[in-house]
Write a structure and sequence with these properties.
Elements: E1 7-15, E2 24-30, E3 35-42, H1 51-65, H2 71-87, E4 96-103, E5 107-113, E6 117-122, E7 125-129, H3 135-141, E8 172-173, E9 177-178, E10 183-188, H4 190-193, H5 198-206, H6 212-225, E11 234-243, H7 250-301, H8 305-321, H9 325-349, H10 353-367, H11 375-403, H12 407-423, H13 427-445, H14 452-477, H15 481-498, H16 501-540, H17 544-560, H18 564-598
Antiparallel strand pairs: 1-11, 2-3, 3-4, 4-5, 5-8, 5-9, 6-7, 6-10, 10-11
Helix pairs in contact: 1-2, 7-8, 7-9, 8-9, 9-10, 10-11, 11-12, 11-13, 12-13, 14-15, 15-16, 16-17, 17-18
Length: 634
């Protein structure tokens, strides 16, 4: 029906070259619903070669078996032609350029491999044109070869796509192109386009009638009138679409399509709304999951494991809802860490110190799976638990020594337990140590009533010495070495009164360390004081830049020594320095302005010596207060 209700006319000419060689070929088939036109240009030089004919016949035959305008069908036809040339029994390898045009009498689509050209003319003007698959056209695209030199360029037949290609055969398939009544399609080989330019051909089609034979004859006459010496074989094909097919059911089809499209759009709209709601809820859950994950980490960083457990539990439920496997795994690792820490805390509160220690160690292992998050807290609790255990170990050892009547050694252990417990604010352990001491004293009371008072004094001194030691250690840790030395000296006096040589040696070492720190600090203070003195000298000399440098060096040292009072004092001096420097700049500017206005030489620049011997402004090569080379004061 389509062919009968349309008018497609075809005419062509194909002539041999001057040496009677013609390896071009054109063939076509016009079926009821589709038409196929194939033109090929043999690239081989052998007279008996039949590459073009074989390619055309193969492509037309494959198309006729299952006619269609699909890309798949056109690729199938061209690949079959390529395969036919590769498998042909010939003395030489068969190769050809090819152009295949398929139409349903309403639209057309072309497939190309090589440098055969297609032009679609509408109202005398080019509507569609192909580009050769050659090295020359690539060079044109890169602006290395001008467009008007393509016909004579030496690489115009150097093709990267052609039939007979063994590897990577990739023909170019166009999109569908809508036709209108009176459209004309021209297909032609190199023998034409090398001698007839685009403008001349467009003039022929502008004046064309409805008869394609006339147009073919006009183009051939134009070509032969040039009488080119190197005229090659040529083929020129014209397809006139005088009348394209009009579908009588088009309106009904459109209505049906619109109705179907409306139903589809309605369905799509409902689906989109559902998906949007689902997606919105999913996004909200993802956001809550992200916040829960972040809250969990922040609570752990704040050592608030109860809140961390609540947040982590909620986040795990959300991760399961949104099926985020990665987040589920990470939150699971956090949950195990939190559970281990909370279990250890419960055991610690219950006095199960050995179990708490083991559980905290397990928590430390769990921390490795979450980038060591919470590890500092766990290590701190492990150290505290170890101290708790140490207190009870000392008390137990003291009890054993009491059973062996070694009261002095038992007392030492009890005292050590008491000092340790006091140092970690372990009230229960401290009370146990005090009760053990009191029990020990009660037991000794019957044996040494007379010595009890002296012994109590000794205990008081030992406790006092221990307290002084602890206070000295704390001050030393905080960097307060003067206070540390005072506490160590008091502890040394106590240990001298107690005649405790071992502790005296320990205290002496700590005193030496504190003294070393104080000496170091003093030398730093002296260095800083020298910087301050140099800064003040520089300021008096007007060298504000040097003064600023020395003040900054001094500030670095005082900051390291945590001497905030001196730091504030230097900051005040630097503020004064800034004021003086600003005053000097203002004065210099004012002097420069006065010099420029009152100079005896109006052409003399500001800041330089005038011709009458007067002093200019500040010399650019000298600092404030220095003598300039001409003897004037800068």
């Amino acid at each position: 029906m389509r062919k009968q209700n349309s008018e497609f006319l075809t005419a062509f000419t194909s002539e041999a070259s001057s040496d009677l060689k013609n390896t071009d070929y054109f063939g076509f088939v016009e079926l009821d619903d589709y038409a196929c036109y194939v033109i090929a240009d043999g690239i081989d030089d052998q007279l008996e070669a039949s590459s073009a004919k074989l390619a055309v016949l193969t492509a037309v035959a494959v198309f006729s078996e299952a006619p269609s305008m699909s890309r798949r069908t056109m690729k199938k036809c061209l690949r079959a032609a390529n395969k036919a040339l590769l498998e042909a029994k010939s003395k030489t390898k068969l190769k050809a350029s090819v152009m295949m045009v398929v139409t349903d009498y309403v639209k057309l689509r072309y497939g190309q491999a090589g440098n055969i050209r297609l032009r679609l003319y509408r109202n005398g003007f080019v509507k569609e044109k192909t580009t050769d698959q050659s090295l020359t056209m690539d060079m044109v695209a890169e602006a290395k070869v001008p467009q008007d030199k393509v016909a004579v360029h030496e690489e115009r037949n150097n093709l990267y796509a052609y039939l007979g290609q063994e590897k990577d055969f990739r023909p170019r398939i166009s999109k569908k192109i809508a036709l209108t009544n009176a459209d004309a399609v021209a297909l032609y080989t190199g023998g034409v386009w090398e001698h007839v330019d685009e403008g001349e051909m467009e003039d022929v089609f502008t004046d064309a009638s409805d008869d394609p034979k006339e147009t073919v004859s006009n183009i051939e006459d134009l070509l032969l009138s040039r009488q080119p010496e190197d005229l090659k074989k040529y083929t020129f094909v014209v397809i006139f679409a005088n009348k394209i097919f009009t579908d009588p059911n088009k309106k009904r089809k459109i209505k049906k399509i619109l109705a179907t499209a409306a139903a589809i759009l309605m369905t799509v709209a409902v689906v989109v709304v559902i998906i949007a709601i689902f997606y919105n809820n999913w996004q909200k859950k993802k956001e809550k999951l992200r916040l829960g994950y972040t809250d969990t980490i922040e609570y752990i960083q704040m050592d608030n494991y109860v809140k961390a457990q609540e947040s982590c539990g909620r986040a795990q439920e959300l991760a399961e809802d949104v099926r985020d496997g990665k987040m589920q795994t990470e939150l699971g690792n956090y949950q195990k860490l939190i559970e281990a820490v909370l279990a250890a805390e419960e055991q610690l509160d219950s006095g199960e110190y050995a179990q708490a220690q083991a559980t905290f160690k397990e928590a430390a292992k769990r921390a490795r799976y979450v980038d060591s998050l919470g590890l500092d807290y766990i290590n701190g609790r492990l150290a505290l638990t170890a101290d708790y255990i140490s207190v009870y170990d000392l008390l137990s050892l003291g009890d054993t020594l009491v059973l062996n009547l070694q009261y002095d050694k038992a007392e030492e252990k009890y005292m050590e337990a008491k000092v340790t417990a006091s140092g970690i604010y372990f009230e229960e352990g401290r009370k146990a140590a005090v009760e053990a001491l009191e029990a020990l004293y009660e037991e000794q009371k019957a044996q040494a009533e007379a010595e009890s008072e002296a012994r109590r004094e000794q205990l008081a001194k030992e406790e006092s010495a221990a307290n002084y030691m602890a206070q000295g250690d704390a001050a030393f840790t905080e960097g307060d070495f003067d206070s540390a030395r005072v506490f160590y000296t008091a502890a040394l006096q106590k240990y001298e009164e107690l005649d405790d040589q071992a502790q005296q040696e320990v205290v002496a070492e700590k005193l030496e360390a504190a003294g070393s720190k104080i000496t170091s600090s003093s030398s730093q203070k002296e260095e800083a004081g020298e910087y301050v003195a140099q800064a003040e000298e520089a300021m008096e000399a007007g060298d504000y830049s040097g003064a600023r440098k020395y003040y900054l060096l001094a500030m670095d040292i005082y900051a390291a020594l945590k001497d905030d009072e001196t730091l504030e004092e230097i900051k005040r001096k630097m503020q004064i320095l800034d004021l003086k420097e600003n005053e000097r700049r203002a004065a210099a500017a004012e002097a420069a302005a006065e010099t420029a206005g009152g100079s005896g030489n109006p052409d003399a620049p500001a800041g330089q010596e005038n011709t009458d011997g007067g002093a200019g402004g500040e010399s650019p090569d000298n600092g404030a207060g220095e003598v300039s080379p001409d003897g004037g004061v800068g």
